[in-house]
Amino acid sequence: MKTMFEGKTILVTGGTGSMGKIFVRRVLAGELGTPKKVIVMSRDEAKQHDMRMSYLHKLVATDEVIYRNFSNVLEFRIGDVRDYGDVCAAVKDADFVVNAAALKQVPTCEYFPTQAVLTNCLGAANIARAIEEHRYPVDSVIAISTDKACKPVNAMGMTKAIQERIFISANITNPKTRFICVRYGNVLASRGSVIPLFHSQIRNGGPLTVTTPAMTRFLLSLDHAVDTVFTALREAKRGETYVPNAPSALVMNIAKALAGQRKIEIEITGIRPGEKLHEVMVSEEEMNHCVQRGRYYAILPMLPELVGRAGREPNALTKEFSSADNVLDLAGTMALLRDNKLMIEDVDPAAVEELLR
After folding, report:
1. CB pairs under 8 A, 24+ apart, for 169-176?
2. Which of 21, 47, 104, 148 is the catalytic position?
3. What superfamily would CATH give domain 9-356?
4. Is 148 an active-site residue?
5. What are 83-134's pLDDT values in tens digits?
């Protein structure tokens, strides 16, 4: 399976986002074979231009061959997953589809839930519908989901949960295409996440704003997020959802670790609309059909048509998988941030501002 992408076309919707950019870089580096083409589809022409120029000017550290051939291998398309015509035009050429297009910021989705439905639900439905109606020969579709889809209490999580169900059920009406999901927690230093906010607040002298001292969150690096997608594409069976066994930390300890010895106040602001105190990646209901796959959990589909009859694997969990279970202490949190070069002295201020936009 190391040559899974050899000679193939991979469509990445929302490919100019934080995870999408790392995914594209690693695909182009040939980790799963040399692709015929990678198509990045998104709505934002400015982000597409920046991403294109980063390859042209060799600002992304990867194989030299990518830069010599990127104009033939890497294709950018302006389009919107909400628009069925845009989706059809992009999906018809693809062997693999990675659906990373999303409205993902919790407060935004609380104030504009209809917009969250259009991107996170209708966008997913458009991909499944395009394949079904036109019989496009797509090998696999993978949905990028979130811990907030598990026992959702906010509009973002609710729409992501529906996205998961849309893709899992699509296996029934599209028997020649494998639809799978990945579900993971907060990605360190991704656009809109708390770490760029803390960096910006520190550079401006504080205060650091923490919603509540007891709040915990799962934490993954961007590369760990991409590893999860690669692993699911290699191993997952139809209808399965892959979940990384990721560490978690107190948001308060993230703030303390980044502040270090600086005399910066930490201000408690209260939980925002739609936020949980702790996130859950596998619920009490899902643990009864959750199995171990190496470093990952796989949530098996509940639809009887997709459930294997022979060799049922034992359940991997005896309780829900919560960010409150195995929380890193302050030293462990600091080590995680340092290992990922996220201490404030390691980070370019311009990159922080770009992630906050």
Report:
1. 169/303, 170/128, 170/131, 170/132, 170/141, 171/238, 171/239, 171/301, 171/303, 171/305, 171/306, 172/303, 172/305, 172/306, 173/128, 173/132, 174/128, 174/131, 174/132, 176/135, 176/137
2. 148
3. NAD(P)-binding Rossmann-like Domain (3.40.50.720)
4. yes
5. 999 999 999 999 999 999 999 989 999 999 999 999 999 999 999 999 999 9
